Task: inverse folding
């Protein structure tokens, strides 16, 4: 069957339906066909609606959690007077130095004589205790020592590190490491 024959047959069927049903009948068939298509799509639409409802509920839940976190953060920001209380006082510096020297022993470092310097600004809420340690060892051991001190002493900060290699072919380096230990003042 050729395309012309198919077209002629479809035109014949259309005219036969038009004569038999008329315009209102053809419109009724079109409406029924549209209703069947819509009715077949209802389960998919319901599934999509349920999925959107679940996503909306989850988003509202997350938004509520974020709002609560934001309120907590705002409350935390509004209380800056609590921040100094997180630091220990200078009376705990001996314990911090003990931890630093223990970390040096565990790292098998050769320490020279340490230098200590205390500094406090008038009216400040914090004081700084600087500890300068001369060290001789391999680079990896020194690096592990610094990391272990910073992980063990929460109020310690690496302020300076100066590294020298005395001999070009040697694997030992000399380093000067300065830690700053931060403490809150004793007065309120």
Result:
């Amino acid at each position: 069957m050729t395309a012309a024959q198919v077209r002629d047959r479809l035109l014949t069927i259309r005219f036969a339906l038009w004569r038999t049903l008329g315009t209102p009948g053809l419109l009724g068939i079109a409406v029924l066909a549209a209703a069947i298509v819509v009715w077949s799509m209802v389960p998919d639409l319901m599934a999509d609606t349920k999925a959107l409802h679940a996503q909306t509920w989850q988003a509202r839940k997350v938004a509520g959690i974020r709002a609560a976190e934001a309120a907590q953060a705002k409350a935390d920001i509004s209380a800056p007077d609590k921040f100094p209380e997180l630091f220990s006082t200078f009376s705990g510096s001996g314990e911090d130095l003990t931890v630093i020297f223990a970390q040096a022993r565990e790292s098998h470092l050769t320490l020279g004589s340490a230098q200590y310097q205390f500094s406090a600004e008038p009216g400040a809420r914090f004081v700084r205790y600087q500890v300068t340690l001369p060290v001789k060892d391999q680079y990896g051991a020194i690096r592990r020592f610094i990391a272990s001190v910073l992980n063990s002493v929460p109020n310690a900060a690496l302020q300076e590190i100066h590294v020298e290699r005395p001999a070009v072919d040697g694997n030992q380096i000399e380093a000067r490491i300065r830690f700053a230990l931060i403490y809150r003042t004793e007065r309120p």
